[in-house]
Design a protein that fits this description.
By secondary structure, the protein is of the alpha/beta class. It is built from seven helices and seven strands. It is 37% helix and 16% strand. Strands 3-2-1-4-6-5-7 form a seven-stranded mixed sheet, sandwiched between helices. α2 links the parallel β2 and β3.
Length: 238
């Protein structure tokens, strides 16, 4: 049994065309035997058979809520849909692919339990927690630049702003506070949490990054979108 202390965890899983992995990631989460949690799967109008798999998953397991979008709106929209129906104390965002491993959950929960953290990010760029697949050089440079720029505006010293593992206490960030539909949600979440001057932690996580032939969806366009959102929410919007 994986203890979450006094907290209930809402695990939000945005899904778009992940028919090859959605059942595997759910199985890995169930195997962790988390003591207090709920799963929220938000399908963003998949067209590859993911919807059918998700329906079967919903019939097979307890503690699962499912949302189906009628249009493909993006990761940010899926996160907002999940937040709207969540009732946990802590939100955990889990991608539907296998890039991020639920075996890291214990490390991700620990700062909440031991240090009363408000936000915990799983960093791919600090060592000490298993293997990391060698991946795109220019993606790494872009990630580090976007993280550096976010640090400049937030006065944090994080190493991985674009990480897929973001956990935060729900009381600090509701669906109504978020606006971005696509991958701009990553800097938006970070900056809006940082502006509240709450306690951030990072822990190292393993990372099995995919290539484009394996279904990776992040492109150069999304990097520029993140750059725009850093300025947008740091300077022009609260």
């Amino acid at each position: 049994m994986l203890s979450t202390g006094q907290y209930k965890i809402s695990i939000i899983i945005p899904c778009f065309n992940e028919v090859k992995t959605i059942d595997k990631i759910i199985s890995k989460i169930i195997e962790k035997k988390i003591d207090k949690y709920e799963l929220i799967i938000v399908d963003d109008n998949s067209n590859d058979g993911s919807k059918e798999k998700i329906k079967k998953i919903g019939q097979s397991y307890k503690n699962i809520k499912i949302v189906f979008h009628e249009k493909n709106l993006g990761k940010g929209s899926a996160i907002r849909s999940g937040l709207k129906i969540s009732d946990g104390d802590i939100i955990l965002i889990q991608d539907a692919d296998l890039e991020y491993d639920p075996n890291d959950y214990e490390k991700l929960f620990e700062p909440f339990i031991k240090f009363d953290a408000d936000v915990v990010y799983g960093s791919r760029f600090i060592g000490g927690n298993g293997p990391k697949r060698l991946h795109f050089f220019w993606h790494t440079i872009a990630n580090k630049f976007l993280t550096l720029l976010t640090n400049f505006f937030t006065n944090l010293n994080m190493t991985d702003m674009e990480t897929g593992y973001k956990l935060f206490k729900k009381k600090y960030l509701t669906a109504e506070m978020l606006k971005e539909n696509s991958f701009g949600i990553e800097p938006e979440i970070t900056i809006k949490l940082a502006k509240q001057k709450i306690k951030f932690f990072e822990v190292p996580v393993s990372y099995n990054g995919r290539g484009y032939t394996e279904g990776k969806k992040i492109t150069t366009k999304h990097g520029f979108e993140a750059l725009y959102c850093i300025f947008k929410y740091s300077i022009f919007k609260r």
